[in-house]
Automatic annotation (TrEMBL):
Pfam families: Glyco_trans_1_4 (PF13692), Glyco_transf_4 (PF13439). It comes from Herpetosiphon aurantiacus (strain ATCC 23779 / DSM 785 / 114-95). Transmembrane segments: none annotated. Keywords: Transferase. InterPro entries: Glyco_trans_4-like_N. This is Glycosyl transferase group 1. The keyword Transferase applies.
Length: 402
Protein backbone atom coordinates (compact mmCIF):
# COMPACT_ATOMS: atom_id res chain seq x y z
CA UNK A 1 0.00 0.00 0.00
CA UNK A 2 0.96 3.63 -0.54
CA UNK A 3 0.24 5.51 2.68
CA UNK A 4 0.58 9.17 3.63
CA UNK A 5 1.10 10.03 7.30
CA UNK A 6 0.31 13.51 8.61
CA UNK A 7 2.17 14.37 11.82
CA UNK A 8 2.11 17.40 14.16
CA UNK A 9 5.90 17.32 14.54
CA UNK A 10 8.73 15.15 13.23
CA UNK A 11 8.70 11.53 14.38
CA UNK A 12 12.44 11.63 15.02
CA UNK A 13 14.33 11.87 17.34
CA UNK A 14 12.00 9.49 19.16
CA UNK A 15 12.37 11.13 22.57
CA UNK A 16 8.74 11.53 23.69
CA UNK A 17 5.62 9.43 23.79
CA UNK A 18 4.23 10.88 20.56
CA UNK A 19 7.46 10.66 18.59
CA UNK A 20 8.11 7.15 19.88
CA UNK A 21 4.72 5.91 18.68
CA UNK A 22 5.02 7.58 15.27
CA UNK A 23 8.61 6.46 14.71
CA UNK A 24 7.96 2.83 15.65
CA UNK A 25 4.89 2.66 13.39
CA UNK A 26 6.81 4.17 10.47
CA UNK A 27 9.76 1.87 10.98
CA UNK A 28 7.70 -1.31 11.20
CA UNK A 29 5.25 -0.41 8.42
CA UNK A 30 8.03 0.59 6.01
CA UNK A 31 8.98 -3.08 5.77
CA UNK A 32 5.79 -3.83 3.82
CA UNK A 33 4.44 -0.50 2.51
CA UNK A 34 5.63 2.62 0.70
CA UNK A 35 5.26 5.52 3.09
CA UNK A 36 5.14 9.30 2.80
CA UNK A 37 5.23 11.63 5.79
CA UNK A 38 4.08 15.24 5.72
CA UNK A 39 5.01 16.86 9.00
CA UNK A 40 4.97 20.19 10.73
CA UNK A 41 8.36 21.14 12.16
CA UNK A 42 8.99 23.69 14.93
CA UNK A 43 12.47 24.80 13.81
CA UNK A 44 15.35 24.38 11.36
CA UNK A 45 17.24 22.32 13.93
CA UNK A 46 14.27 19.98 14.37
CA UNK A 47 14.07 19.56 10.58
CA UNK A 48 17.76 18.74 10.40
CA UNK A 49 17.47 16.21 13.23
CA UNK A 50 14.53 14.52 11.50
CA UNK A 51 16.41 13.58 8.33
CA UNK A 52 17.03 9.93 9.35
CA UNK A 53 13.30 9.42 8.75
CA UNK A 54 14.04 9.41 5.02
CA UNK A 55 15.22 5.84 5.54
CA UNK A 56 11.61 4.82 6.17
CA UNK A 57 9.48 7.32 4.23
CA UNK A 58 9.38 10.17 1.74
CA UNK A 59 9.64 13.06 4.17
CA UNK A 60 8.31 16.59 3.66
CA UNK A 61 8.66 19.16 6.47
CA UNK A 62 6.58 22.34 6.77
CA UNK A 63 7.29 25.13 9.30
CA UNK A 64 4.84 24.89 12.16
CA UNK A 65 2.51 27.83 12.79
CA UNK A 66 3.08 29.80 15.98
CA UNK A 67 0.60 31.11 18.54
CA UNK A 68 1.39 33.11 21.63
CA UNK A 69 -0.33 32.93 25.02
CA UNK A 70 -2.49 35.96 24.25
CA UNK A 71 -3.85 34.31 21.11
CA UNK A 72 -4.49 31.07 22.99
CA UNK A 73 -6.32 32.92 25.77
CA UNK A 74 -8.47 34.80 23.26
CA UNK A 75 -9.49 31.69 21.31
CA UNK A 76 -10.18 29.83 24.57
CA UNK A 77 -12.89 32.42 25.21
CA UNK A 78 -14.14 33.05 21.67
CA UNK A 79 -13.63 29.98 19.44
CA UNK A 80 -15.95 26.97 19.43
CA UNK A 81 -12.92 24.85 18.56
CA UNK A 82 -10.65 23.35 21.24
CA UNK A 83 -7.11 24.56 21.66
CA UNK A 84 -5.74 21.35 20.14
CA UNK A 85 -7.63 21.97 16.89
CA UNK A 86 -6.07 25.45 16.65
CA UNK A 87 -2.43 24.42 17.06
CA UNK A 88 -1.80 23.27 13.51
CA UNK A 89 -3.80 25.31 10.94
CA UNK A 90 -1.38 26.25 8.15
CA UNK A 91 -2.14 27.29 4.60
CA UNK A 92 1.34 26.16 3.62
CA UNK A 93 0.62 22.69 5.00
CA UNK A 94 -2.77 22.58 3.24
CA UNK A 95 -1.12 23.47 -0.05
CA UNK A 96 1.61 20.87 0.43
CA UNK A 97 -1.01 18.23 1.21
CA UNK A 98 -3.02 19.16 -1.87
CA UNK A 99 0.11 18.90 -4.00
CA UNK A 100 0.92 15.43 -2.66
CA UNK A 101 -2.65 14.25 -3.19
CA UNK A 102 -2.62 15.63 -6.72
CA UNK A 103 0.65 13.96 -7.75
CA UNK A 104 0.38 10.59 -5.97
CA UNK A 105 -2.19 7.82 -5.81
CA UNK A 106 -2.44 7.04 -2.08
CA UNK A 107 -4.38 4.09 -0.74
CA UNK A 108 -4.76 5.72 2.67
CA UNK A 109 -4.05 8.95 4.55
CA UNK A 110 -3.52 8.71 8.31
CA UNK A 111 -3.45 11.64 10.73
CA UNK A 112 -1.39 11.24 13.87
CA UNK A 113 -3.18 12.87 16.85
CA UNK A 114 -6.21 15.12 17.00
CA UNK A 115 -4.26 18.23 15.87
CA UNK A 116 -3.98 16.76 12.39
CA UNK A 117 -7.57 15.55 12.03
CA UNK A 118 -8.47 18.67 10.02
CA UNK A 119 -6.04 17.57 7.31
CA UNK A 120 -7.36 14.01 7.27
CA UNK A 121 -10.78 15.53 6.56
CA UNK A 122 -9.20 17.50 3.71
CA UNK A 123 -7.79 14.29 2.21
CA UNK A 124 -11.13 12.55 2.63
CA UNK A 125 -12.74 15.19 0.42
CA UNK A 126 -10.42 13.95 -2.36
CA UNK A 127 -12.09 10.55 -2.08
CA UNK A 128 -9.17 8.92 -0.28
CA UNK A 129 -9.77 6.76 2.83
CA UNK A 130 -8.70 8.84 5.83
CA UNK A 131 -8.00 7.64 9.37
CA UNK A 132 -7.02 9.10 12.73
CA UNK A 133 -4.54 7.65 15.19
CA UNK A 134 -6.06 9.13 18.35
CA UNK A 135 -3.34 8.97 21.02
CA UNK A 136 -5.73 9.87 23.84
CA UNK A 137 -9.38 10.46 24.53
CA UNK A 138 -8.37 14.10 24.79
CA UNK A 139 -11.51 15.40 26.44
CA UNK A 140 -10.93 12.94 29.30
CA UNK A 141 -7.42 14.28 29.92
CA UNK A 142 -8.76 17.80 30.29
CA UNK A 143 -11.71 16.66 32.40
CA UNK A 144 -9.39 14.85 34.82
CA UNK A 145 -7.01 17.81 34.88
CA UNK A 146 -9.85 20.15 35.80
CA UNK A 147 -10.98 17.84 38.59
CA UNK A 148 -7.44 17.59 39.98
CA UNK A 149 -6.49 21.27 39.69
CA UNK A 150 -9.68 22.66 41.19
CA UNK A 151 -8.66 21.08 44.50
CA UNK A 152 -5.75 23.58 44.73
CA UNK A 153 -6.41 27.30 45.06
CA UNK A 154 -3.19 28.17 43.24
CA UNK A 155 -4.27 26.08 40.24
CA UNK A 156 -7.70 27.70 39.68
CA UNK A 157 -6.64 29.22 36.34
CA UNK A 158 -5.50 25.81 35.04
CA UNK A 159 -8.73 24.22 36.28
CA UNK A 160 -10.78 26.87 34.45
CA UNK A 161 -8.85 26.36 31.21
CA UNK A 162 -9.35 22.58 31.37
CA UNK A 163 -13.04 22.90 32.23
CA UNK A 164 -13.55 24.98 29.07
CA UNK A 165 -11.39 22.76 26.90
CA UNK A 166 -12.84 19.40 27.81
CA UNK A 167 -16.32 20.39 26.63
CA UNK A 168 -14.97 21.74 23.35
CA UNK A 169 -12.86 18.64 22.87
CA UNK A 170 -15.80 16.33 23.46
CA UNK A 171 -17.75 18.03 20.66
CA UNK A 172 -14.76 18.08 18.31
CA UNK A 173 -13.71 14.48 18.94
CA UNK A 174 -17.28 13.28 18.41
CA UNK A 175 -17.46 15.09 15.06
CA UNK A 176 -14.05 13.99 13.79
CA UNK A 177 -14.31 10.34 14.83
CA UNK A 178 -17.78 10.01 13.27
CA UNK A 179 -16.63 11.66 10.04
CA UNK A 180 -13.38 9.83 9.26
CA UNK A 181 -13.22 6.29 7.89
CA UNK A 182 -11.52 4.82 10.95
CA UNK A 183 -10.16 5.93 14.32
CA UNK A 184 -7.58 4.04 16.36
CA UNK A 185 -7.36 4.32 20.15
CA UNK A 186 -4.61 3.04 22.42
CA UNK A 187 -6.76 1.28 25.03
CA UNK A 188 -10.20 -0.23 25.61
CA UNK A 189 -10.72 2.47 28.26
CA UNK A 190 -10.20 5.23 25.68
CA UNK A 191 -12.63 3.48 23.34
CA UNK A 192 -15.26 3.41 26.10
CA UNK A 193 -14.75 7.09 26.91
CA UNK A 194 -15.18 8.11 23.26
CA UNK A 195 -18.28 5.95 22.95
CA UNK A 196 -19.72 7.84 25.93
CA UNK A 197 -19.72 11.03 23.86
CA UNK A 198 -21.62 9.22 21.07
CA UNK A 199 -18.85 8.24 18.71
CA UNK A 200 -20.83 5.75 16.62
CA UNK A 201 -18.18 4.41 14.27
CA UNK A 202 -16.09 1.40 15.24
CA UNK A 203 -13.03 2.35 17.26
CA UNK A 204 -10.09 -0.01 16.78
CA UNK A 205 -7.71 -0.57 19.70
CA UNK A 206 -4.10 -0.19 18.52
CA UNK A 207 -2.17 0.17 21.77
CA UNK A 208 1.20 1.70 22.43
CA UNK A 209 4.07 -0.74 22.36
CA UNK A 210 7.71 -1.18 23.19
CA UNK A 211 10.79 -2.32 21.31
CA UNK A 212 11.44 -5.30 23.55
CA UNK A 213 14.90 -5.83 22.04
CA UNK A 214 16.04 -2.27 22.68
CA UNK A 215 14.39 -2.12 26.10
CA UNK A 216 15.78 -5.29 27.59
CA UNK A 217 17.41 -5.82 30.99
CA UNK A 218 21.16 -5.71 31.44
CA UNK A 219 22.46 -8.94 32.90
CA UNK A 220 23.67 -8.91 35.58
CA UNK A 221 21.49 -5.99 36.62
CA UNK A 222 23.73 -3.33 38.18
CA UNK A 223 21.25 -1.05 39.92
CA UNK A 224 21.55 1.36 42.83
CA UNK A 225 19.44 -0.20 45.62
CA UNK A 226 18.36 3.25 46.84
CA UNK A 227 17.35 4.85 43.52
CA UNK A 228 13.81 5.38 42.29
CA UNK A 229 13.21 6.39 38.66
CA UNK A 230 10.61 8.45 36.81
CA UNK A 231 10.83 9.12 33.05
CA UNK A 232 8.74 11.14 30.63
CA UNK A 233 8.28 14.44 28.86
CA UNK A 234 8.89 17.03 31.57
CA UNK A 235 6.75 19.72 29.94
CA UNK A 236 3.66 17.47 29.95
CA UNK A 237 1.08 18.59 32.49
CA UNK A 238 0.10 15.10 33.81
CA UNK A 239 3.79 14.25 34.36
CA UNK A 240 4.39 17.51 36.24
CA UNK A 241 1.37 16.86 38.45
CA UNK A 242 2.57 13.29 39.12
CA UNK A 243 6.01 14.47 40.17
CA UNK A 244 4.68 17.18 42.45
CA UNK A 245 2.34 14.75 44.19
CA UNK A 246 5.02 12.09 44.59
CA UNK A 247 7.69 14.48 45.86
CA UNK A 248 5.40 16.36 48.24
CA UNK A 249 3.23 13.52 49.53
CA UNK A 250 4.97 10.18 48.97
CA UNK A 251 8.74 10.59 48.97
CA UNK A 252 8.88 12.02 52.52
CA UNK A 253 7.10 8.89 53.80
CA UNK A 254 9.61 6.66 52.03
CA UNK A 255 12.61 8.61 53.29
CA UNK A 256 11.25 8.59 56.84
CA UNK A 257 11.83 4.83 56.85
CA UNK A 258 14.69 4.67 54.33
CA UNK A 259 16.54 8.03 54.44
CA UNK A 260 19.05 7.08 51.75
CA UNK A 261 16.31 6.79 49.09
CA UNK A 262 16.63 9.21 46.16
CA UNK A 263 14.65 9.97 43.03
CA UNK A 264 16.08 10.21 39.52
CA UNK A 265 13.92 12.14 36.99
CA UNK A 266 14.89 11.60 33.34
CA UNK A 267 13.17 13.27 30.42
CA UNK A 268 13.01 15.95 27.77
CA UNK A 269 12.24 19.67 28.04
CA UNK A 270 11.91 20.17 31.81
CA UNK A 271 9.94 23.30 32.67
CA UNK A 272 11.14 25.75 35.33
CA UNK A 273 8.53 24.21 37.66
CA UNK A 274 10.17 20.79 37.22
CA UNK A 275 13.71 22.11 37.60
CA UNK A 276 12.70 23.66 40.92
CA UNK A 277 11.95 20.18 42.26
CA UNK A 278 15.63 19.22 42.29
CA UNK A 279 17.23 18.65 45.71
CA UNK A 280 20.94 17.84 46.16
CA UNK A 281 21.50 14.15 46.99
CA UNK A 282 17.72 13.54 47.01
CA UNK A 283 16.18 14.47 43.65
CA UNK A 284 18.29 14.48 40.49
CA UNK A 285 16.90 15.81 37.20
CA UNK A 286 18.62 14.52 34.05
CA UNK A 287 17.25 16.33 30.97
CA UNK A 288 17.29 15.63 27.24
CA UNK A 289 19.26 12.38 27.20
CA UNK A 290 19.83 10.50 23.89
CA UNK A 291 18.07 7.44 25.33
CA UNK A 292 16.29 6.71 28.59
CA UNK A 293 17.00 2.98 28.33
CA UNK A 294 20.24 2.90 30.38
CA UNK A 295 18.55 4.63 33.33
CA UNK A 296 16.04 1.82 33.83
CA UNK A 297 18.92 -0.52 34.51
CA UNK A 298 20.31 1.84 37.17
CA UNK A 299 17.09 2.00 39.21
CA UNK A 300 15.80 -0.29 41.95
CA UNK A 301 12.16 0.75 41.41
CA UNK A 302 10.26 2.67 38.74
CA UNK A 303 7.48 4.92 40.08
CA UNK A 304 4.45 5.96 38.02
CA UNK A 305 2.35 8.24 40.27
CA UNK A 306 -0.06 9.49 37.60
CA UNK A 307 -3.27 11.25 38.71
CA UNK A 308 -4.44 12.53 35.33
CA UNK A 309 -3.98 11.57 31.71
CA UNK A 310 -5.00 8.42 29.87
CA UNK A 311 -4.04 5.91 27.21
CA UNK A 312 -1.20 3.42 27.51
CA UNK A 313 1.94 5.05 28.85
CA UNK A 314 5.08 4.13 26.97
CA UNK A 315 7.21 4.59 30.09
CA UNK A 316 5.16 1.89 31.81
CA UNK A 317 5.86 -0.58 29.01
CA UNK A 318 9.53 0.40 28.94
CA UNK A 319 9.91 -0.16 32.67
CA UNK A 320 8.25 -3.56 32.45
CA UNK A 321 10.33 -4.57 29.41
CA UNK A 322 13.58 -3.75 31.21
CA UNK A 323 12.57 -5.82 34.27
CA UNK A 324 12.46 -2.75 36.49
CA UNK A 325 10.14 -3.40 39.47
CA UNK A 326 7.25 -0.96 39.23
CA UNK A 327 4.76 0.83 41.47
CA UNK A 328 1.94 2.72 39.77
CA UNK A 329 -1.33 4.36 40.58
CA UNK A 330 -4.34 2.61 39.13
CA UNK A 331 -4.67 5.42 36.58
CA UNK A 332 -1.00 5.07 35.61
CA UNK A 333 -1.57 1.45 34.63
CA UNK A 334 -4.84 2.06 32.76
CA UNK A 335 -5.15 0.56 29.32
CA UNK A 336 -2.70 -2.34 29.54
CA UNK A 337 -4.97 -5.32 29.03
CA UNK A 338 -3.73 -8.36 30.93
CA UNK A 339 -1.53 -6.50 33.40
CA UNK A 340 -2.14 -8.12 36.79
CA UNK A 341 -1.41 -6.34 40.10
CA UNK A 342 0.83 -8.35 42.44
CA UNK A 343 1.83 -10.54 39.50
CA UNK A 344 3.49 -7.95 37.21
CA UNK A 345 3.59 -4.77 39.36
CA UNK A 346 2.16 -3.12 42.47
CA UNK A 347 -0.69 -0.58 42.37
CA UNK A 348 -1.36 2.07 45.02
CA UNK A 349 -3.43 5.25 45.02
CA UNK A 350 -2.92 7.01 48.37
CA UNK A 351 0.40 8.49 49.56
CA UNK A 352 0.70 5.96 52.38
CA UNK A 353 -0.12 2.98 50.13
CA UNK A 354 2.25 4.18 47.40
CA UNK A 355 5.07 4.66 49.92
CA UNK A 356 4.55 1.22 51.45
CA UNK A 357 4.44 -0.49 48.03
CA UNK A 358 7.68 1.23 47.03
CA UNK A 359 9.36 0.24 50.30
CA UNK A 360 8.21 -3.36 49.80
CA UNK A 361 9.98 -3.52 46.44
CA UNK A 362 13.09 -1.84 47.86
CA UNK A 363 13.31 -4.24 50.81
CA UNK A 364 12.05 -7.52 49.30
CA UNK A 365 14.28 -7.85 46.27
CA UNK A 366 13.48 -11.47 45.47
CA UNK A 367 9.76 -10.64 45.38
CA UNK A 368 10.45 -7.50 43.32
CA UNK A 369 12.53 -9.38 40.77
CA UNK A 370 9.88 -12.08 40.43
CA UNK A 371 7.31 -9.43 39.51
CA UNK A 372 9.72 -7.80 37.08
CA UNK A 373 10.61 -11.04 35.27
CA UNK A 374 6.93 -11.95 34.85
CA UNK A 375 6.24 -8.44 33.56
CA UNK A 376 9.01 -8.69 30.96
CA UNK A 377 7.57 -11.94 29.61
CA UNK A 378 4.09 -10.42 29.46
CA UNK A 379 5.17 -7.25 27.62
CA UNK A 380 7.42 -9.02 25.10
CA UNK A 381 4.59 -11.39 24.18
CA UNK A 382 1.77 -8.84 23.94
CA UNK A 383 3.11 -5.31 23.43
CA UNK A 384 6.07 -5.50 21.07
CA UNK A 385 5.72 -2.99 18.22
CA UNK A 386 5.69 -5.73 15.61
CA UNK A 387 2.49 -7.15 17.11
CA UNK A 388 0.99 -3.65 17.40
CA UNK A 389 1.51 -2.81 13.72
CA UNK A 390 -0.12 -6.08 12.74
CA UNK A 391 -3.28 -4.89 14.52
CA UNK A 392 -3.17 -1.61 12.61
CA UNK A 393 -2.81 -3.37 9.27
CA UNK A 394 -5.74 -5.65 10.07
CA UNK A 395 -7.86 -2.53 10.62
CA UNK A 396 -6.68 -1.06 7.33
CA UNK A 397 -7.79 -4.26 5.65
CA UNK A 398 -11.37 -3.59 6.72
CA UNK A 399 -11.28 -0.30 4.77
CA UNK A 400 -9.89 -1.84 1.59
CA UNK A 401 -12.38 -4.71 1.73
CA UNK A 402 -15.28 -2.74 3.17
Amino acid sequence: MRILFLTPYPAYPANSGGTQRMFQLLRELSRQHELWCLSLSPSHSASAAAQPLNRYCHLTLIPAPRRNLTQRAWTTLTSPLPDMALRAPSETFRSALASLLNTNRFDLVQAESIEMAQYALQAQRWGIPATLDQWNAEYVLQQRAAQTDRQQLKRWHAALYSAIQWRKLARYERFVCNQLDQTYVVSPEDRTMLQKIEVKKTLHVVPNGVDSQQFSPNMPREYDPNTLLFTGSLDFRPNIDALRWFIQEVLPLIRAERPETKLMIVGRAPTPAVLQLAQPSVIDIIPNVPSVQPYFNQAAVFVLPMRMGGGVRLKLLEALATETPLVSTTMGADGVTGLVPNQHCLLADTPAEFAQATLKLLHERQFAQGLAMAARRFVAANYDWQAITERLQQAWGEISHG
